């Protein structure tokens, strides 16, 4: 049994949208989508330790983008409070969040942090007397209250996401691909991109009758796409420069924007190829944020 004064470390991996099709819009204004989430070796870290007072400290390479934001509104603390209510636990936590994932960048950093905080609470509190254990389905229900991208981030495994994010279907094991992520250091808040998409009048994508054949690079290139990409490029033209730079890298099989942007990715046949391409990429584009590694 875990001692109550022992803390744990949990990881919050960044996700990419291999494709993102907007298939409709509900009467309440929410857009319906079809996407496959793939996760990466880039991750935020949370150290969660039982304490007398609730506290969240944020540090790390990309934490500067959160400067000035109200800590009480952070998704991590909202997730902890939600889990405490659901599990019947009132214990306070001292949390250190180390940010490695860019903020408002289309790779699910905040959502991944919230999902990791939920998993951390479940682990810390599962053996406490009178604590309510939560099923996987109940965890997903709770995660929906924190945002559409939080439920898919709970397991950190490849998953097809449909509806407004509540319909989840595991899609198997990820290939041993390599990935290079790049961002021109511009924030793209998701609500602004969806508002611009709505106002653009672009047609919705038809439902996929076959697929998704998400491990097939040819299918990803010819059938799949990111329906938010054109809108995001209109808001931030520099994104097109990032996509073109990624597509020109030796060994790059696919280059695309992730989510609502502005982070873009290139896929490679192996992590080694991605790392080799990254060494050259950072020399040519030192002003952009970038990272390379594996997918899972």
From TrEMBL:
It catalyses: 4-CDP-2-C-methyl-D-erythritol + ATP = 4-CDP-2-C-methyl-D-erythritol 2-phosphate + ADP + H(+). The active site is at 15, 149. It holds the Pfam family GHMP_kinases_C. Keywords: ATP-binding, Isoprene biosynthesis, Kinase, Nucleotide-binding, Transferase. Gene3D superfamilies: 3.30.230.10, GHMP kinase, C-terminal domain. GO terms for molecular function: kinase activity. Residues 74-156 form the GHMP kinase N-terminal domain. This is 4-diphosphocytidyl-2-C-methyl-D-erythritol kinase. The gene is ispE.
């Amino acid at each position: 049994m875990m001692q109550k004064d022992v803390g744990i470390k949990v990881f919050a991996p960044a996700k990419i949208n291999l494709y993102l099709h907007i298939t409709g819009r509900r009467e309440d204004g929410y857009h319906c989508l079809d996407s496959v989430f793939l996760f990466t070796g880039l991750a935020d870290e949370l150290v969660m330790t039982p304490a007398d007072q609730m506290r969240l400290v944020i540090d790390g390479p990309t934490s500067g983008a959160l400067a000035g934001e109200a800590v009480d509104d952070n998704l991590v603390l909202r997730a902890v409070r939600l889990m405490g209510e659901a599990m019947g636990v009132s214990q306070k936590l001292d949390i250190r969040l180390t940010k490695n994932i860019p903020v408002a960048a289309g790779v699910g950093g905040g959502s991944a942090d919230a999902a990791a905080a939920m998993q951390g609470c479940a682990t810390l509190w599962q053996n406490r007397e009178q604590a309510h254990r939560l099923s996987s389905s109940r965890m997903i229900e709770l995660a929906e209250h924190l945002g559409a991208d939080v439920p898919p981030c709970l397991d950190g495994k490849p998953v097809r996401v449909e509806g407004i994010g509540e319909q989840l279907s595991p899609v198997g094991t990820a290939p041993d691909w390599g990935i290079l992520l790049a961002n021109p250091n511009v924030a793209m808040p998701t609500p602004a991109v969806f508002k611009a998409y709505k106002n653009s009048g672009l047609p919705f994508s038809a439902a996929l009758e076959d697929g998704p054949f998400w491990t097939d690079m040819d299918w990803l290139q010819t059938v799949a796409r990111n329906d938010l990409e054109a809108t995001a490029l209109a808001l931030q033209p520099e994104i097109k420069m990032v996509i073109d730079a990624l597509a020109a890298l030796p060994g790059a099989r696919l280059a695309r924007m992730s989510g609502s942007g502005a982070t873009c990715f290139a896929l490679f046949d192996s992590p080694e190829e991605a790392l080799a391409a990254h060494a050259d990429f950072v020399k040519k584009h030192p002003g952009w944020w970038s990272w390379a590694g594996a997918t899972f």
